[in-house]
Design brief:
The protein has two domains: about 80 residues, Phosphorylase Kinase, domain 1 (2-Layer Sandwich); about 190 residues, Orthogonal Bundle (Transferase(Phosphotransferase), domain 1). Helix content is about 35%, strand content about 20%. It contains eight helices and ten strands. The strands form three sheets. The protein has a five-stranded antiparallel beta sheet, with helices on one face. Helix 5 packs antiparallel against helix 7. The longest helix is centred in the middle third of the chain and has 19 residues. The protein is globular and about 50 Å long.
Length: about 280
């Protein structure tokens, strides 16, 4: 394993570097801790445990781990970075990010969540947002960052933290009532991630703190859906934002809804769209 000098990203957990393993580019995630710390070690092992369960085209793959002299996680390299940075870059040149491409990304994101929520995998991600969606060389979207995810078990209950996520993407029952994250709260966050694909904005970035607090306390935690959003995608986003978790669609329902629209409109080209 050879680490390069190219820093791919950084966060509260640690830094991600471009590396090479047997002449193949990979991403090496190095925790900030390099000495034994029970809490940090548990978080790192939790992410490895979750990633090791996953084998999907819509989830970033785990390539390997090391817990000997140095700690690190080796993951699939996603050469086009995260979705949030991509949308920020394309905000002033939207014509270079065609709707077909972004619709394809939306389909891939909900397929990834559907896979995580499936009976055999049964994972609550707890932090779905654009910066945790990575893009490969062909701008295919894959879910990443499982540091606060939890594996649900019918016999053991929830393995992992009860709360988590990033405030502006959080479902109101988590943000306001401190309830644990669930598959339904993941779906609420999916709604804002799909909204980002259409708006090229971060949720509530135009609100002052006072306006935001008023909205989540007395109103509905929603954004205005941009003009030009395909009706089926608009409907999916609105359903994801339902205040009552029971009324939100499941991930598989979202997949079926978006795929059905492709069949109706004969939009098979969505999945062979040219990329920038």
């Amino acid at each position: 394993m050879k680490k390069t000098d190219k820093l791919l990203g950084t966060g509260s957990f640690g830094d991600v570097w471009l590396a090479q393993y047997e002449y193949v580019d990979v991403a090496m995630k190095i925790p900030k801790f390099q000495s034994y710390n029970e809490k940090d070690r548990e978080e790192c092992e939790r992410e490895i445990k979750v990633m090791s369960k996953c084998n999907s085209s819509y989830v970033v793959k785990l390539r390997g781990t090391c817990f000997h002299e140095n700690y690190f996680i080796v993951m699939e390299y996603m050469s086009n970075g995260d979705l949030q940075k991509y949308l920020e870059k394309m905000k002033d040149k939207k014509s270079e990010s065609p709707l077909k491409l972004r619709y394809r990304m939306a389909c891939q994101i909900v397929k990834g969540v559907s896979y995580l929520h499936s009976y055999s995998i049964n994972i609550v991600h707890s932090d779905i947002k654009s910066s945790n969606i990575l893009l490969d060389e062909y701008y295919n979207a894959k879910i990443s960052d499982f540091g606060i995810s939890k594996i649900r078990s019918t016999t053991l209950g929830t393995i992992g933290p009860n709360k988590g996520g990033t405030v502006k993407w959080l479902a109101p029952e988590v943000e306001n009532d401190a309830k644990p994250t669930t598959k339904e709260t993941d779906i609420f966050s999916v709604g804002f991630t799909l909204w980002e694909l259409m708006s090229f904005e971060i949720p509530f970035s135009k609100c002052t703190n006072k306006e935001y607090l008023y909205k989540i306390t007395y109103g509905s935690k929603k954004e205005e859906i941009p003009e030009g959003t395909p009706p089926v995608l608009k409907e999916c986003i609105e359903r994801c934002w339902e205040k009552d978790p029971i009324l939100r669609p499941t991930a598989i329902e979202l997949v079926e809804k978006l795929q059905q629209e492709c069949k109706i409109s004969h939009s098979w080209q969505l999945f062979s769209v040219s990329v920038p």
